[in-house]
Amino acid sequence: PTHEVVWKKAKFFGDGEGYGDNNKEFVDIIYEKAVGEGIAKITINRPERRNAFRPQTIKELMRAFNDARDDSSVGVIILTGKGTKAFCSGGDQALRTQDGYADPNDVGRLNVLDLQVQIRRLPKPVIAMVAGYAVGGGHILHMVCDLTIAAENAIFGQTGPKVGSFDAGYGSSIMSRLVGPKKAREMWFMTRFYSAFEAEKMGLINTVVPLDDLEKETVKWCREILRNSPTAIRVLKAALNAVDDGHAGLQELGGDATLLFYGTEEGIEGRTAYMQRRPPDFSKFPRRP
Ligand code: S0N
């Protein structure tokens, strides 16, 4: 197929009422699905703020990611920012208070941390499609994605120690895994910005493409992934995160093992015996080497 993709405002998969256009409720993001492709695209839509996020942005992102997870026609999710100047510039500094970022009720929130966990645990690949700045909390969002495809104008970096913040969670530990402990210290201590080519060399991203080709290339990667076994990809994502995510990582991977076991004759025998009020007979199942 050609790279041409037809994006349609996403119909929500579930949500009780069945399918419906819940995009009406979105103010800070755009949520689309590619017609007949298995690709969802979630776009942070605050270009006048370089796609900085506020608590509402995060709430909307979580809702869209949740839908993309539930929709079994979706196999890959793209996270991006509106326009070419920024993927995301982190938390909206105008709303920063003494306890997070102010929501409409003036309650401070750090709900981006919940979004980071959601992306890590989501059993489908999430691809960050980056044009322009991915800095601060926006840089962390691309790091928690499974893959990052950058345009030549992309710029990566942390600003925390300069603007009075830091991410001592995934923003530190995942970075150290990606670029190594020395380079991670450099990124955080110096708050330098890095070009797309430098980022590629550091192992921070997967590839760099001309800006005009960014979506075309990203869709190509999505299609390559979508040709492969969804179960294999699901288990691999869990496995690749398991050690770093500790008990939660093992739980995710363990859940996949349970999911697969339910489909086996051996697993079914246990449930059937219980339902038939008889002792289970596992004698025919091999104790494999
Ligand atoms: C991105 C930069 C480098 C772009 O520079 P450029 O192209 O020169 O544009 P500007 O003229 O600077 O910006 C255009 C307009 O956009 C506004 N704007 C840009 N970024 C933000 C922002 N983050 N918040 C609010 N407004 C922003 C500008 O003010 C400007 O507006 P006007 O036109 O009205 O003047 C440059 O903009 C830049 O350096 N931006 C700030 C980057 C930054 O420091 N981000 C915050 C870093 N900290 C975090 O993200 C917090 C980390 C985090 O999320 C977290 C981690 C762990 C635990 C919790 C949290 C949490 O806080 O949630």
Automatic annotation (TrEMBL):
Keyword field: Lyase
Documented EC number(s): 4.1.3.36
Catalytic activity: 2-succinylbenzoyl-CoA + H(+) = 1,4-dihydroxy-2-naphthoyl-CoA + H2O
GO molecular function: 1,4-dihydroxy-2-naphthoyl-CoA synthase activity
Top-tier EC class: lyase
Domain of life: Eukaryota
Family that this chain belongs to: Belongs to the enoyl-CoA hydratase/isomerase family.
Name by which UniProt lists this protein: 1,4-dihydroxy-2-naphthoyl-CoA synthase
Organism, scientific name: Cardamine amara subsp. amara
